[in-house]
Amino acid sequence: RLLGWTRVPQGPAIVLEYLDGVSLLELSTYEEISASLVDEITAQVQLGLESLHARGITHGDLSAKNIFITTAGGVKILDFGFSREREELSVYGTPQFLAIEAWEGRICGPKADLFSLGLIREDLLLGQIQQHRPFEAWKERTMATLNRSTLLKREPSERHCLNLRPAARRQALLGDLARRA
User: Fold this and answer.
1) Longest C-alpha distance within the chain, in Å?
2) Among this protein's residues, is 113 annotated catalytic?
3) Dihedral of the CA atoms 114, 132, 178, 159 (nearest 10)?
4) 65-116 confidence digits (pLDDT tens)
5) Euclidean distance between CA atoms 42 and 117, whole angstroms
6) Entry pTM
7) Catalytically annotated residue among 20, 39, 61, 113
């Protein structure tokens, strides 16, 4: 959350809320994340994306390092450096989580964020989020995930959020996991 801005000797600075927790990438390094908690993370990220997309904003670089898990079990989307307010040709972002349309050189918009979330979800469920691969191998891996869920449809117009809603019990468990990590 943006709290304001100020000037410091080095120049202008923004003031953001303090977040206590870990990135999803860090969390997955320290802890095994159950399918139930993957659902909680997915549900909360979908809500965040729905809010962004309703304002005409595409994140553009949704990845495991740009999803933050608070010690209260909240999920925050971070790093809006590649975000934009219009659809455009783009190959920006983390290769591991790029949407199929980015690999194919097509126009990317809000539905690209859903595809990225689908890839993150797949990796979490398989326990392979930190797996290192050469750049071209990420493209092959992305092609292999097509149509596994409504998040991973080839055509952006066919992508839809999963029918998941945040749950207080799962949120509490997610917070416990973040505190342990």
Assistant:
1) 51
2) no
3) 10
4) 999 999 999 999 998 877 887 776 666 778 889 899 988 888 888 999 999 9
5) 7
6) 0.90
7) 61
